[in-house]
Specification:
elongated; 50 residues; binds zinc ion
C-alpha cells in the first residue's frame, strides 16, 4: 500500500503540466526551474513566459 502510493506520486511528479506527458526531464526541470514541465514545454515557457 505504501509502496503503491509512493509509485503513484513519482508518476505524478514526472507528468508535464503543459502537455500531460510523462517525461523524466519534468522532475529535473521542477528542481532546476520550478516549472513542472518537460524539456520541449520548457522551451515554450522560456519564449512565451506566462
Ligand atoms: Zn510538456
Amino acid at each position: 500500500m505504501i509502496n503503491e502510493e509512493k509509485n503513484k506520486n513519482e508518476i505524478v511528479d514526472s507528468i508535464c503540466e503543459e502537455c500531460k506527458n510523462e517525461e523524466e526531464s519534468v522532475k529535473q526541470n521542477l528542481i532546476l526551474t520550478g516549472y513542472k514541465v518537460c524539456n520541449s514545454c520548457k522551451i515554450s515557457k522560456t519564449i512565451f513566459p506566462i
